[in-house]
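Complex record, two chains
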Amino acid sequence: MFRITPIENGICAVDGIYAGAVKGGFKKDDYDVGFIRSQEPLDIAYLFTTNKFQAAPVKYVLKKGIKKTNFILANSKNANALTGDEGIEDIEEIMAYLSEKVKVDNPLMSSTGVIGVRLDKERIKKAIDKMDFNERNSNKFARAIMTTDSFEKEIAFEVEGEFGKFRIGGVAKGAGMINPQMATMLCFITTDADIPKEDMREILKEDNEITFNAISVDGDTSTNDSVFLMTTRKAHYEKEAFKEALKQVMLKLALDIVRDGEGATKTVGFVVTGAKDEKEAKIAAKALTNSLLVKTALFGEDPNWGRIASTIGASGVECDEKKLRISFENVLVYDRGNILFDSETERKANEVMKKREFKIYVDLGIGKGAFTAYGCDLSYEYVKINAEYRT
Amino acid sequence: MFRITPIENGICAVDGIYAGAVKGGFKKDDYDVGFIRSQEPLDIAYLFTTNKFQAAPVKYVLKKGIKKTNFILANSKNANALTGDEGIEDIEEIMAYLSEKVKVDNPLMSSTGVIGVRLDKERIKKAIDKMDFNERNSNKFARAIMTTDSFEKEIAFEVEGEFGKFRIGGVAKGAGMINPQMATMLCFITTDADIPKEDMREILKEDNEITFNAISVDGDTSTNDSVFLMTTRKAHYEKEAFKEALKQVMLKLALDIVRDGEGATKTVGFVVTGAKDEKEAKIAAKALTNSLLVKTALFGEDPNWGRIASTIGASGVECDEKKLRISFENVLVYDRGNILFDSETERKANEVMKKREFKIYVDLGIGKGAFTAYGCDLSYEYVKINAEYRT
């Protein structure tokens, strides 16, 4: 038994975590270079993108084999991806510069923005010069990592049980190139839970599968996707409580990313049940989040269940039209071979779709595999944002 | 050695092929029910969708094991898909009715349109009543199968060589739900070439891989995709000549489908070379045609090569940023680790992208696998068409 209570201050809800940001001039007049730090180095676990062209900051962490750190520098507007050895050398130079300004221990970097452009090192150095390393402002950091995001994504909880208590907080950014195969664009989670080292990565991975890996904005997996989990180990720990709290942090941030998906007007959960196994349920659910015809039907508030069925059929999973059931929330439109879609059902299903957030249930009637994926609609605005987003 | 000359009259360029259409009232005031027929039954080869929910007309052909036919009835506005046993019974009833009006031998049906709605049999019967079975009007038939298509897709060739000569003609429809896994939405090809039975399906399949299976409008594979090839066997045959002519027919129709893709303003060939093998080249090329970020960059005429690289990296194929090369036509923007993208290169690449049709070359520098896929941009119009297309 444990109790999870939302609290303020995101990643800085955890004692000993400092965070802040400055206006480095990459954005017009907003925060764009930020940091997270602690006095002592903290154990860190991470998950990175499965994109074969991993960005320089990802390669840097893997190359150095960083397991403990007391400093993360983050920037937006430039992903430092497809920048070759120079991209990594740029990070090394920046990290060396940083070490002259503040006490760092295995510092690392995390970047998001345009792919294929060298970092402006001098500008980053000037941003470092302006930093107040004693700031404890999670929100400023959350702003600094935003690209096409329209709001900051932050959350923190205090978890209490017989084992004692701990805190956990997270920030993330999303908006575009969102179809995480490992983790979403960028997410930073801090905690004071006394997690055994061997649990850190395992729990992060498990919770990631059903949160960040369950969302899609546009089906494109970025070069920079990263989730970091850091712990000060100053508080208590209980595995189930921590796993649940971490899941809630990650699900909240993942859904915020979908809610803030480029041009999105609706957040839709695709609940697939009755698949042959969980893997097939996930394939079907993710296919629904990525189908342009489904996404445009969501935008048009059109309960076009035929497109949902066709997408399931095209996804390659085991299915049978005599076992399939489709409902929009509680409005059943297709039931194992019977088309229940008359004008009354259409009106009710259309009512469901007018909501900002709703669920579509697809039961394959084959086995016990279940998975819920979260997606959004495809609007004119998405096209506008991405046709105009120039390098 | 052989010569391929374009000729008029599409599928009716072949002697003995009749085709026509009537206004059945499914569309406001246009042809919507059509036929292709011959006096004697013809050998027919076909390829159908890999969507697990095959439409009733597809299931009907497979169930009957039709190998020879003298009649194809086609309709638009209703796909007769996800309609269960009733969908097949509806076809049987329509075919029985047809046999009272005209001499048919293993007649079959082909449908396109909305998924999950029963066919209006009575309306189809009334359309049959109005048909002039002695018409030889390929264009009318091509119009009858159009849905969101904006122009008819027809082609015919006469092929002449030392072996003698033959003719070949085709019609197709496309526009949406286009990511054929076996064949595109609907395509009908007639010929008088004296093809050995064992060659028919083999050649159709091979040519299909590099034509219809190489295109994508929206990444959605429909329930009805079908390609039919029929021959009267009245003329001559030579394998290489036929294979080439068939490829040209199919490529022309496939590219017409992309040109007429819903809301498309650009047709782009993604030429992938240097992949580990052909399979990986195809995966990478198709991934490029389906990436929303690439498609919106095409619409915005933005030479955002980072999105192209990222899509390749996310596609799962073997790749290495130090071996990768990317060019827009002859404008090289990224060369094996070197970013050549300065303002002059950007201007030139942007010039290329202003064209209605162009190619993007991606060399992976790994092996000898090559594949060219054809796609289009994603425009506001696509969203409009698909958000408003109601059941």
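Note: Chain A touches chain B through 71 residues (CB under 8 Å).
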